[in-house]
Amino acid sequence: AAEPWPENAALYQQLKEEQILLSDNASSLAVQAFLQMCNLPVRVICRANAEYMSPSGKVPFIHVGNQVVSELGPIVQFVKAKGHSLSDGLDEVQKAEMKAYMELVNNMLLTAELYLQWCDDVTVEEITHPRYGSPYPWPLNRILSYQKQWEVRRKMKAIGWAGKTLEQVLEDVDQCCHALSQRLGTQPYFFNKQPTELDALVFGHLFTILTTQLITDELSEKVKNYSNLTAFCRRIEQQYFEGHDKDSSTTAAQSSKRSLLR
């Protein structure tokens, strides 16, 4: 039997308007979508130091009862242990396929977002450094930004992305979207009629890419080329985020960005 979900469950992320970056916003929205799909209410709390509060150093993280869990994968497992699951109806082959597509999204879309934020020089100077360091006074704002940049660039080097051009990264995004578009087809969700954690993850990233103002529209244009993916984002936004209580997490889909429906 499912355990009762506490009313005061909270999700922590960075400040919406002035601080949070594309990749963290996407990850946070994916978790919010997952919890909405499970019908588990959560209050979004924005803190300038959310990244440093997180047990893994990554956002978002949820505080439920006396437990703190960060990132979508561990949160899905935590929620499942409490008796709530979106993928119980899948067979073993489908579960393996779902995991493979989630890996694809994390390896391609999330990595591309991080590359754009921290390796594209124009984006770094005009968007990333000002936003990332915004809650802190000078020179701490620059020091923290450069530390993070060094950390991400070291990761990019380790996975072989450091030498890529922006065009190559955008091509990777296009290939990922093409694979997702083919898997989705004309279905409402990736595994037909019911959403799974894959739907929450894909929505978090694609919706955020579609609605975040960057230096150019090149990234969002890659997603817009696939009409079934944009329709998928609109459908989830309408079903799980539109017209809900304004004080709850459900306004997250509009967090500092325009809705797809406007």
List the helices and strands and how they pair.
Elements: E1 10-13, H1 22-37, E2 43-46, H2 50-53, E3 61-64, E4 67-70, H3 72-81, H4 92-119, H5 121-132, H6 140-158, H7 166-184, H8 197-211, H9 218-224, H10 227-240
Parallel strand pairs: 1-2
Antiparallel strand pairs: 1-3, 3-4
Helix pairs in contact: 1-8, 4-5, 4-6, 4-7, 4-8, 5-6, 7-9, 8-9, 8-10
Protein name: Metaxin-2
Keywords: Acetylation, Membrane, Mitochondrion, Mitochondrion outer membrane, Protein transport, Transport
Family: Belongs to the metaxin family.
Description:
The protein is an alpha+beta fold and 262 residues long. It has one domain: Glutathione S-transferase Yfyf (Class Pi), Chain A, domain 2. It has ten helices and four strands. The chain has a four-stranded mixed beta sheet, covered by helices on one side. The chain is globular.
Question: What attributes characterize this protein structure?
Answer:
262 residues, Glutathione S-transferase Yfyf (Class Pi), Chain A, domain 2, mitochondrion outer membrane
